[in-house]
Amino acid sequence: MHTFTGFTEDTFSFFMMIAFNNTPSCFEQNRPAFQAHVLTPLKALSNALAPTMMAIDPQMDLRPVMGGTISRIRRDTRFTRDKSPYRDNMWLEFRRKREQGHFGLYFDLSPRGADCGIGVHGLTPSQMTLLRQHILANGARYKALHLEVVSAGFSLHGSRYKRPPLRSDDPILMDVVSRKWLAYEKPISLQQTMQPALVDQLAEDFRTLQPLYSFFQTFSI
After folding, report:
1. Are 3 and 99 in contact (CB under 8 A)?
2. Which band of pLDDT confidence, cut at 50, 70 and 90, is reported for residue 76?
3. DSSP H or E run through 210
């Protein structure tokens, strides 16, 4: 098992190279660089964070493989105009195994920057409506959680409806239920990703998000 020592300039050079020449032949020629500078440190980071994530939720899928905690480098191009076969970024996501929508804690890495956060993924529009109703039904609790993570440096993300399906007199809750999808995200500098201390930083950030993660888990899809 490798110890996480930080990502390197070679990590970001690989991402920029595949963005410039996004072809199977280029990827295969550079597969050793992908293994050494992208996949290996992602596995090491996932393993280093596993005890923290297990404490947050013992039901999390903690397999340090692509399709487990590690995103796949190959893109699914079936339903998109962009047919580029490979991503120029990768991420770790810690979540329970689910066939449909889930709530996950994540760390995303690309040459454009890095971030960590919590997101709601894969819910149908009707499921998102039920989640918004759940948030409003527990408005005081959710607002307190929102303010806690915002004070820790996370910001709310998610495109807004022009005509929100639900309303609230509270401006914070109204902002939340106006979103088509939800994520709370915090930026991480590329310099920080190159340090072994990234493990401790992410562990602290994910522990900050634990109460919000636990709230989302009270919602049954």
Report:
1. no
2. confident
3. helix 198-217
Is 32 strand, coil or helix?
A: helix
Q: What is the pLDDT of residue 177?
A: 95
CA-CA distances (angstroms) from residue 60 to 42, 54, 66, 211, 216? 17, 7, 15, 15, 14
Tens digit of each residue's pLDDT (9 = 90 or more) over 120-178: 888 888 889 999 999 999 999 999 999 999 999 999 999 999 999 899 999 999 999 99
What average pLDDT does the chain have?
93
Residue closest to 180 by CA, chosen among 197, 166, 194: 166
Q: For residue 7, what are the contacts with CB-CB under 8 A and spacing of at least 6?
A: 37, 41, 109, 193, 194
Q: Which residues contact 98 (CB under 8 A, 6 or more apart)?
A: 122, 221
3-state secondary structure 99-138: CCCEEEEEEEEECCEEEEEEEEECCCHHHHHHHHHHHHHC
CB 116 within 8 A of CB 206: yes
How buried is residue 28: exposed, middle or buried, by Cβ count under 10 Å (0-12/13-18/19+)?
A: exposed
Residue where the block lists tokens 């939720």 = 57
User: What's the predicted TM-score (pTM) here?
Assistant: 0.94
**Residues 12 and 191: beta-carbon distance below 8 Å:** no
Closest to 49 (Cα-Cα) out of 205, 215, 214, 212: 205
**C-alpha to C-alpha distance for 117 and 70, rounded to whole angstroms:** 15
Decide which of 161 and 80 is more confident. Answer: 161
